[in-house]
């Protein structure tokens, strides 16, 4: 099965698609989607790559798993479709943006507008079975998305990586710190945020400050 992924990414990742682990992964995913309800819908599995070309990338945000409730996941980490109630982590992301940038809390939880500005919203695992968090982990997705991070690090420069929580922070080892920027904090989930590890990290203003310094257009968060 050919992978439907934007051309600029396909050129960079083509060798991954031909590896045995990836073929096994695709076969697993096809079987899961055939026999169970899974998210996001098939056309959105690679959506995080659709909005921004590889060399136009500015920021990478790493999540863990797609949302596993009905109509939530749209292929972008932390994002939900228009009109869907905001999950707790997204609420805390928007609260931090409101205080950090003195902006109103957004109505829509759809983060496509970030993606179109060069923000890669990458989950480590790109699919999930309905109501079963983590059900598609350790099937090969993590190998693939680690390779995505590695290739961004190798082939690009001056990318800002926002690593939120212990899981995302482990990805720092894949990133060349001499070529890129890494901002770390706790996860925006209520558990972490309520312990004081998320609010006040100012990652959104800090990201824009770095972009200004690089002569790039800021992100309209």
UniProtKB/TrEMBL annotation:
Belongs to the uracil-DNA glycosylase (UDG) superfamily. UNG family. This is Uracil-DNA glycosylase. It comes from Polaribacter batillariae. Its EC number is 3.2.2.27. The lineage of its organism: Bacteria, Pseudomonadati, Bacteroidota, Flavobacteriia, Flavobacteriales. Keywords: Cytoplasm, DNA damage, DNA repair, Glycosidase, Hydrolase. It comes from the Bacteria. Pfam families: UDG. HAMAP family: UDG (MF_00148). The keyword DNA damage applies. It is found in: Cytoplasm.
